Automatic annotation (TrEMBL):
This is Uncharacterized protein. The chain crosses the membrane at residues 16-36, 48-68, 74-94. It comes from Aquincola agrisoli. Keywords: Membrane, Transmembrane, Transmembrane helix.
Length: 95
């Protein structure tokens, strides 16, 4: 399957699990460092950061590498925008 000329790959269960654990671990480390430094994130900011970090780690497994060219960057930023828009819409709908 291709998206904007980027050949996507189908990762296995172990790859998805490893990427998700890595993204979650990086999120925990970053939120902890920010909190320890006196710049604690609010809940919506932390949720948005989690979504973007999980997408960043999963996108590489799907074949979308941010450093691979402009098409990869456009797809990456478009998906990040969609995720953040969905997060904002959920906040507005559910409180």
């Amino acid at each position: 399957m291709q998206v904007v000329g980027i050949s996507l790959r189908k990762p296995g269960f172990n790859e998805i699990t490893a990427a998700t654990v890595m993204g979650g671990g990086l999120w925990i480390a970053l939120v902890g460092l920010l909190s320890a430094g006196g710049h604690a994130l609010e809940r919506p900011e932390a949720a948005a950061l989690l979504l973007v970090m999980l997408w960043g780690s999963l996108s590489v497994r799907l074949g979308i590498d941010f450093a691979a060219g402009w098409r990869h960057r456009i797809v990456h930023l478009a998906v990040c925008g969609l995720l953040l828009g969905a997060c904002q819409a959920a906040r507005m709908l559910f409180g």
